[in-house]
Amino acid sequence: MKDSMIYYSVGALLYCPANKETIANSVAGQRFGKKYSLALCLEDTINSDYVSEAEQQLIASLHQLYASSKQISFYLPKIFIRIRCPEQIEKLYKALGDAVQLLTGFIIPKFAPENADSYIERIRLLNEKAAKPVYMMPILESPCIIHLQHRSDVLYTLKAKLDAVEPYVLNIRVGGNDLCHMFGFRRQSTESIHDIKPISAIFSDIITVFGMQYVISGPVWEYYNGDHWDAGLIAELDQDRQAGFIGKTVIHPKQIDLVNSAYQVSKTDLEDAKSILNWDEKSPALVSGSARSERMNEYNTHYRWAQKILFLSEYYGVT
Asked: Is 265:312 a contact under the CB 8 Å cutoff?
């Protein structure tokens, strides 16, 4: 399990096309609030004929944002670039110049055995020279993880490759819509992706393989207006948490607060977590009643849970 706050603090990751000209002003004007991360996308949201233009706009946006950060004070989110190919990593990193200080890392789409080594090697080489860590967040969404006969082999192969650069793997992400696309599925605003059994099974396998070692973020919710969009998101977030996800990809600013609220921890959980983490190791007993005498706390079986609760409370807060 990750033992540093950085891995739990991506939170609500707001996706934005990299060619959006107003993004720097929106961030500097704190239009999206003060608790979110930002993904500038060069992949699925950009027509393949306009990638070069989108790259230039992305570079211009980050230079503008960097200049603004030197003049006024505002919340700077963690910023990631969702790339299309491995070659963009070094290319964009160099092109950003001083503005690279704003970059947290790169999002790797359709991460699969055939491209993993190329992405990983570039991240490794970049971190040998970089002044601060450059993280990667691979997205598991390729068709190769769908086929049941080979899924476990593919997932464990990818994990073994990522383990070589584990400190730089900030989150594992899942592409819910891409996986649904393979089956022709699309959930309504009253439905959860966890109720689509083939997709839920894939998520379960991903969490089983990666969840003991990495933080895994929940899939995008594509509704932000209309009937039930917010109730549907809240319900899916509840299932996200139960499944083992932390944080979520969002596609509209209205979704950010709901994600942040969903991952706040209860006061009861925080009290018990602190009690477990401060356990007297010389005590003859490794089990006791909870702070409110409502449940059992056992050091050996609840310690990792308690660590996670503490990290979540520090970033998301307590309800």
From this structure: yes
Q: In whole angstroms, what is the distance from residue 171 CA to residue 215 CA?
A: 5
**Does this model's pTM top 0.85?**
yes
pLDDT tens sequence across 91-137? 999 999 999 999 999 999 999 999 999 999 999 999 999 999 999 99
Q: Which fold would CATH assign to domain 5-263?
A: TIM Barrel (3.20.20)
Query: Tell me, what DSSP letter sits at residue 135?
Result: E
Q: Which pair of tokens denotes residue 46?
A: 């950009």
In angstroms, the CA 94 to CA 92 distance is 5
Give tens-digit pLDDT for 136-171: 999 999 999 999 999 999 999 999 999 999 999 999
Q: Is 96 helix (H, G, I), strand (E, B) or coil?
A: coil
The C-alpha atoms of residue 42 and residue 58 are separated, in whole angstroms, by 9
Tokens coding 288: 């006791």
Tell me how far apart the 2 most distant CA atoms of the chain are, in Å: 68
Return d(Cα 130, Cα 128) in angstroms, integer.
6
What single-letter DSSP state applies at residue 211?
T
Helical axes 176-183 vs 197-210, angle rounded to 10°: 140
Question: What are the extents of the domains in the chain?
Answer: 5-263, 268-316
286: its two tokens = 């490794």
